[in-house]
């Protein structure tokens, strides 16, 4: 099979080459990968995260069609199009038994600690795939870009009484955080400079005027939940936008992870900061129903052969929407 592979660090060392196919064990399936997307974690895998094995195939978010099924796998058949939970888990440790597969003691991230999906095929445990007829773009956004904000919003219990402010609302996860919070009944204020987000959110405000606009829109109450995956650069703003008894939820630090925090502002507002990390299998199953009409803003589709260019654009380009790699 052909796969995007690297041995040395950096986008410049990515290359598409023939790679040996893996055999399918009893409890595994072989997928023909159809569409993959690019996430910050994929760029980090290429540039800095410890990865294994080497040579390494990155790709943590993708969907595929079942091509071969191990003897013990009964819930999917050859030809099924499937959503993929891209974290390997053993299903038997105490975390898994609690349904917290993210923290499986033997867990691995697909595309980081195991071979990923920027390849014509991938062999993956049957327990990681579920049949689905969602659109291609939604399916290849589910494992991280959709699941991560969904888990975050669920963790802080978003519901009809909430006003959720999403920073970075046009970004990889932001676009889905906005749509999912709406589906959970909340009023959603998106913070972004992109006009098109108006299609998804109740209100859209831009960064320079975000504080006064959120104040105006909430009659001074501010947000009950602020989603801030942007890190350092926008941390102060997030703290300004959260209301009394509000929650700031974070699952990333795109602009840096070191945050200076005025504790006086935190306790004066009785505010909480909550960190969350991806999501679990049960949530992915819920999303197979909830994500039906999710809209995906597409910046561009690349081919596997153009993957290097795709990563350059992801890193340096003025991207507006998601970048996909068609395989
Ligand atoms: Zn486990």
TrEMBL record:
InterPro entries of this UniProt entry? ADH-like_C, ADH-like_N, ER, GroES-like_sf, NAD(P)-bd_dom_sf
Instruction: Output this protein's name.
Output: Alcohol dehydrogenase GroES domain protein
GO MF term set = NADPH binding; oxidoreductase activity, acting on NAD(P)H
> Which Gene3D superfamilies does the UniProt record give?
Medium-chain alcohol dehydrogenases, catalytic domain
Taxonomic superkingdom: Archaea
Keyword NADP: yes or no?
yes
Its taxonomic placement starts with:
Archaea, Thermoproteota, Thermoprotei, Sulfolobales, Sulfolobaceae
Limits of the Enoyl reductase (ER) domain: 9-325
Q: Which SUPFAM superfamilies match?
A: GroES-like (SSF50129), NAD(P)-binding Rossmann-fold domains (SSF51735)
**Keyword set, alphabetical order:** NADP, Oxidoreductase
């Amino acid at each position: 099979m052909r796969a995007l592979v690297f041995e040395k660090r950096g986008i410049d060392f990515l290359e598409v080459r023939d790679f040996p196919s893996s055999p399918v064990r009893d409890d595994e399936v072989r997928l023909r990968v159809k569409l993959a997307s690019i996430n910050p974690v994929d760029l980090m895998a290429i540039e800095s995260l410890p990865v294994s094995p080497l040579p390494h195939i990155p790709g943590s978010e993708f969907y595929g069609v079942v091509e071969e099924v191990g003897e013990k796998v009964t819930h999917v058949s050859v030809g099924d199009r499937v959503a993929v939970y891209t974290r390997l888990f053993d299903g038997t440790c105490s975390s898994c038994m609690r349904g917290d597969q993210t923290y499986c003691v033997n867990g691995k991230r697909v595309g980081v600690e195991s071979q990923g999906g920027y390849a014509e095929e991938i062999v993956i445990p049957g327990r990681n795939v579920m049949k689905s007829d969602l659109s291609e773009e939604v399916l290849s956004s589910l494992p991280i870009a959709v699941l991560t904000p969904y888990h975050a919003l669920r963790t802080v219990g978003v519901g009809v009484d909430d006003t959720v402010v999403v920073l970075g609302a046009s970004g990889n996860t932001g676009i889905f955080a906005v749509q999912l919070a709406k589906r959970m009944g909340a009023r959603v204020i998106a913070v972004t400079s992109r006009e098109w987000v108006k299609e998804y959110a109740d209100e859209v405000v831009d960064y320079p005027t975000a504080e006064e606009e959120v104040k105006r829109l909430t009659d001074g109450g501010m947000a009950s939940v602020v989603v801030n995956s942007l890190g350092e650069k926008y941390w102060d703003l997030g703290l300004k936008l959260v209301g009394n008894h509000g929650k700031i939820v974070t699952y990333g630090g795109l602009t840096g992870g070191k945050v200076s925090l005025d504790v006086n502002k935190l306790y004066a507002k009785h505010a909480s900061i909550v960190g969350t990390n991806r999501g679990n299998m049960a949530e992915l199953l819920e999303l197979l129903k909830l994500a039906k009409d999710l809209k995906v803003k597409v910046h561009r589709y690349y081919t596997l052969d153009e993957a290097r260019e795709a990563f350059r654009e992801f890193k340096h380009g003025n991207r507006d929407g998601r970048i996909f790699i068609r395989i």
